[in-house]
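dumping this here so i dont lose it
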């Protein structure tokens, strides 16, 4: 058996088994390219731009201290172009779950709860399952690398496949062309994204070195490699704090005026309280988060972070390359399209497997049909349902973010049940495309009714392309799903097989 033949089985089964999980990961990561735009879309109070942003850093700190006077640490991030509101949060003294809030930049009031755009980002890297989900995603990433490398080996005509797409061919041939095309076009990106995704969490996947050198304390490891500053608590009450606005102004003068990133106050109720002010700079792939550490009471500069060491700089480069933290909207659009090509590659591979076995019969066909409908159709529809829930759930509902999450889960369960019950009807794909079209086309209309300041006509009129782009994308998705549903509903014509004619040369 040749190497190519031996890789065929590995590619088929190594690609099939994690395919549905990989679809979830790739879909979540693709949508997360515009997580901040979705975050703003899901917060209608921010749609009109509001008034002048007068909220000071000191006011945000005081608001947090009123929420948790004995907090272990306070975190704040000023408004930015993509997120025109304050992020604020605190680490409770009992080391329980971090508490995070979005604050209106004008009034200083906490905005209504929402899962926001970070929902898809978290779905991408740990499936909302914590450390267990992180390991599951890592295993899926390794399977993806195996499938990609084995796919390269088994394809004899990898460059020819780039130019081959026959949508009118028989089902298996058309799906194979689509699988090959999307796989070849996005191959460098898919290799990059799979490898860097594993590299980001290498300290969790391969922790032996840190466990040996740092007794398992990964935080201490990163403290050292980043050159961060830490001061132990003195266990004495803190004097009145220095103005954070003055400290930020001092940091700007040292940086040369760059934008401020996260501001943190560690053990604020203690005399040894430390203020960390980070620079925010997206001019290159590696964002050296130049951090200045001040004494919270006196304002004395305690520490200035040095540039990253070569090892950590390489790690930061891989991390930011994976997360598209450079290049602006053009790079984000490119990552979105290439990520969706990865989804299409996975779907094409699943359909190729299914078409082959439907032609000759075999086990597992019903299960694969059900999983295709439940996952490939269920996740996008559940995501659209989540956006509907965001608009329809009242702002004053307790645990509003949880209500949005249940909307997402409920919609996905319904789709999964429908896919299982109708798996052999041949109409699941058409039905789900139709539902997706109705939900996607309905969202801009619902947005017009519930958030007029963020509606498509209003955002286009004032040139707010961040919000307008969400509605335009939804309209595009709705039209595409509608056209595909209409095409699936058309009666199929059986094409007569081609008859090969033998040319006979007659002698004179």
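and the seq i came up w/
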């Amino acid at each position: 058996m040749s190497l190519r033949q031996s890789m065929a089985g590995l590619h088929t089964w190594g690609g099939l088994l994690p395919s549905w999980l990989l679809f979830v990961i790739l879909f979540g990561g693709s949508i997360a390219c515009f997580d901040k735009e979705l975050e703003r879309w899901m917060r209608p109070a921010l749609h009109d731009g509001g008034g002048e942003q007068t909220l000071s850093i000191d006011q945000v700190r005081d608001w947090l201290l009123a929420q948790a006077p004995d907090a272990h640490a306070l975190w704040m991030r000023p408004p930015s172009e993509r997120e025109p509101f304050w992020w604020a949060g605190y680490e409770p003294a009992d080391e329980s779950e971090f508490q995070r809030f979005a604050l209106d930049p004008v009034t200083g009031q906490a905005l209504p709860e929402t899962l926001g755009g970070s929902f898809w980002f978290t779905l991408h890297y740990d499936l909302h399952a914590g450390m267990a989900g992180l390991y599951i995603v890592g295993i899926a990433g390794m399977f993806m690398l195996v499938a990609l490398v084995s796919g390269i080996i088994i394809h004899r005509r990898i460059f020819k496949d780039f130019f081959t797409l026959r949508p009118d061919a028989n089902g298996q041939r058309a799906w194979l062309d689509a699988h090959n095309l999307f796989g070849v076009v996005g191959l460098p990106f898919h290799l990059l994204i799979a490898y860097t995704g594993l590299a980001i969490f290498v300290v969790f996947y391969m922790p032996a070195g840190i466990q040996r050198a740092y007794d398992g304390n990964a935080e201490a490891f990163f403290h050292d490699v980043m050159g961060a500053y830490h001061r132990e608590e003195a266990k004495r009450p803190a004097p009145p704090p220095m103005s954070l606005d003055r400290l930020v102004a001092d940091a700007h003068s040292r940086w040369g005026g760059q934008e401020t990133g996260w501001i943190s106050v560690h053990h604020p109720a203690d005399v040894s309280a430390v203020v960390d002010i980070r620079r925010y700079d997206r001019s290159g792939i590696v964002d050296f988060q130049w951090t200045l550490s001040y004494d919270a009471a006196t304002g004395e500069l305690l520490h200035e972070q040095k540039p990253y060491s070569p090892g950590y700089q390489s790690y930061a480069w891989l991390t930011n390359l994976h997360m598209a933290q450079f290049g602006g909207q053009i790079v984000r659009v490119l990552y979105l399209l290439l990520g969706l090509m990865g989804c299409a590659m996975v779907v094409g591979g699943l359909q190729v497997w299914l078409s082959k076995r439907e032609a000759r019969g075999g086990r597992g066909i019903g299960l694969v049909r059900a999983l295709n409908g439940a996952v490939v159709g269920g996740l996008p529809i559940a995501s659209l349902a989540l956006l509907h829930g965001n608009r329809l759930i009242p702002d004053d509902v307790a645990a509003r973010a949880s209500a949005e999450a249940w909307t997402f889960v409920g919609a996905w369960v319904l789709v999964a049940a429908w896919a299982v019950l109708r798996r052999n009807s041949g109409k699941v794909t058409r039905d789900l495309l139709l539902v997706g079209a109705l939900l996607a086309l309905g969202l801009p209309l619902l947005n017009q009714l519930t958030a007029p300041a963020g509606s498509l006509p209003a955002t286009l009129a004032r040139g707010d392309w961040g919000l307008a782009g969400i509605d335009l994308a939804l309209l595009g998705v709705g039209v595409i799903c509608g056209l595909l549903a209409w095409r699936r509903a058309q009666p199929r014509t059986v094409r007569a097989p081609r008859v090969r004619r033998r040319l006979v040369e007659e002698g004179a």
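Strands lie at 73-77, 86-91, 99-103, 259-266, 274-280, 291-295, 301-304.
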